[in-house]
Design goal:
With 336 residues, this protein is mostly helical. The protein has one domain: ABC transporter involved in vitamin B12 uptake, BtuC. It has helices at 2-32, 45-50, 52-87, 99-113, 118-142, 148-173, 179-188, 199-215, 220-223, 227-232, 238-259, 265-277, 281-306, 313-330; strands at 34-35, 41-42. Strands 1-2 form a two-stranded antiparallel ribbon. Helix 3 packs across helix 12 and helix 12 (265-277) packs across helix 13 (281-306). The two termini are 34 Å apart.
């Protein structure tokens, strides 16, 4: 009886996951084939054949932008789910290890000292995010008290504060007319700067990261257990935790290097995924990827179609996430 009930629940979760995935495919099709040029609304193949400008915008700007929005949401959702399971903290997100702050510092360095060169901005942002993880791990290894998770939390908070201070210094020395505005706009996040140039390697890194995280989804359930319980089951998870954090930070650093900081998605999405698909990581992790992609792609598509000017996507995701979290907390579906 219990086995039959379990199988019924598994089938329901798989069916729900499939429906959300089909919804994501439908949204991606709408995002690819709608825009504001040559006219607001649906873009026809005849328009692309007749108008070279429309074809150029479609291939060089819209396709990379839509693909980046998809990968950004999936990566942030997966990174948030992994972080909350590893740290056993419902408030955890990829920002815990100073990744976003490090990427912001790297981008600000390129903006202030290298004339905001796009390829160099991507490179320095990626290096900054990776440095955030390296510093957090190095400091955590030197802390002599507490478990590995506690040491990572302490070191991540230290690194985040350090990079936030560096970013403030860079804002002070930046030119107030152009550079400061560029830094602020990049920090708020957006996919409008994404082009075909330099787009493929970033998405490739994100795909590899998501694949590796997905391969460990059946082990992610163990990360939510206390260290003693995991060891009693014969699982030494320190190495696996570090490996998964590496891949999540690698993918998020790569995506952040071209999209800027898209906040709150990594915090909210895992909660929505657990409500929709349960706590089992086999479904929750995949659900986090799909829901994250739905939110970022849906927000970016709405910005493109409804607003005549670019609105940073970080503003939209922040408003949506804060309202959604407030509703979930007040209804008792999310508890901290």
């Amino acid at each position: 009886m219990i086995k039959n009930e379990y199988q019924i629940q598994v089938k329901k979760k798989r069916r729900r996951l499939s429906l959300f995935f089909l919804g994501l495919i439908a949204l991606a099709a709408v995002a690819f084939w709608t825009g504001r040029y040559p006219k607001l609304g649906w873009t026809r193949l005849a328009d692309l054949r007749a108008d070279p400008i429309a074809a150029n915008l479609f291939w060089r700007l819209r396709i990379p932008r839509v693909a980046t929005a998809l990968m950004s949401g999936a990566m942030l959702g997966a990174g948030g789910f992994v972080s909350q399971n590893i740290f056993r903290n419902p408030l955890a997100s990829p920002d815990f290890l100073g990744v976003s702050q490090g990427a912001a510092v790297g981008a600000a360095i390129a903006i202030v000292f290298f004339s905001n060169s796009a390829p160099l901005r991507q490179l320095t942002a990626f290096c900054g995010g990776s440095c955030g993880l390296l510093l957090s791990l190095a400091i955590a290894r030197r802390i002599r008290f507490g478990g590995w998770v506690m040491r990572l939390l302490l070191s991540g908070a230290t690194v985040s504060a350090f990079f936030s201070g560096l970013l403030t210094v860079l804002k002070i020395v930046a030119d107030g007319n152009n550079e400061l505005h560029a830094i602020e706009f990049w920090i708020m996040g957006g996919y409008n700067y994404v082009t075909l140039n330099g787009f493929a390697p970033v998405v490739g890194i994100a795909v590899v990261s998501l694949t590796m995280i997905g391969l460990f989804r059946w082990r992610t359930n163990l990360f939510s257990l206390p260290e003693e319980s995991a060891l009693s089951l014969g699982a030494s998870l320190k190495g696996e935790r570090t490996l998964l954090l590496w891949f999540s930070v690698l993918g998020i650093s790569a995506i952040t290097s071209i999209s800027g900081v898209v906040g709150w998605v990594g915090l909210l999405i895992p909660h929505l995924a657990r409500i929709a698909f349960g706590t089992d990581s086999r479904f929750g992790l995949s659900g986090s990827m799909i829901l994250g992609a739905l939110i970022t792609l849906g927000s970016d598509t709405a910005i493109r179609l409804l607003s005549p000017r670019e609105i940073p996507i970080g503003i939209v995701t922040a408003f949506f996430s804060v309202i959604a979290l407030a509703v979930l907390i007040s209804s008792g579906k999310v508890r901290f």
